Amino acid sequence: MNVRRVVPNLRTEDPEACGAFYARIGLSPAMELGWITTLTGTGGGASPVQLSLMTEDLTGPVVPDLSIEVDDVDAAYEELRAAGAELLFPVRDEEWGVRRFFVRDPDGRVVNILGHR
């Protein structure tokens, strides 16, 4: 299983103000779905620079602390389930083109594990 990217998710009540703040340091909207805006920057590495601003999670129980994109969501789910991890949201296909689930890490953070279909 390979990790493709890791994106911090910030809960916000005012995505426009937060977006304007981060625009001042070079981040710009790459995706806007109303409840989530993903900002990107140019960065200098192989992976894109990304940050998501979320007012809620449209179908999930909470706003996750971070999102990790993997190449095999089902393998990640089975690995974490078998290890006894606390699964908060079952594997499902979302209408915006991802397959995902939520899991809690050992420090209590909620992680959205996803892959693009």
Q: Please state the CA-atom Rg, rounded to the nearest Å.
A: 14 Å
Report the top-level CATH class.
Alpha Beta
H/E element order:
EHEEEEHEEE
Task: Predict the CATH topology.
Answer: 2,3-Dihydroxybiphenyl 1,2-Dioxygenase, domain 1
**Strand sequence of the main sheet, in spatial order?**
2-3-4-1-5-8-7-6
The average pLDDT is 91
Q: Which overall shape is indicated by the principal axes computed on the Cα atoms?
A: globular
- Helical content stands at 10-25%
Question: In terms of per-residue confidence, which ranges show pLDDT below 50 for 5 or more consecutive residues?
Answer: none
Strand percentage: over 45%
Specify the structural class. alpha+beta
What is the end-to-end distance?
16 Å
Q: What is the CATH homology-level superfamily?
A: 2,3-Dihydroxybiphenyl 1,2-Dioxygenase, domain 1
Number of strands: 8
The description of the largest β-sheet is: 8 strands, mixed
The domain tally reads 1
Shape-level CATH architecture = Roll
The helix tally amounts to: 2
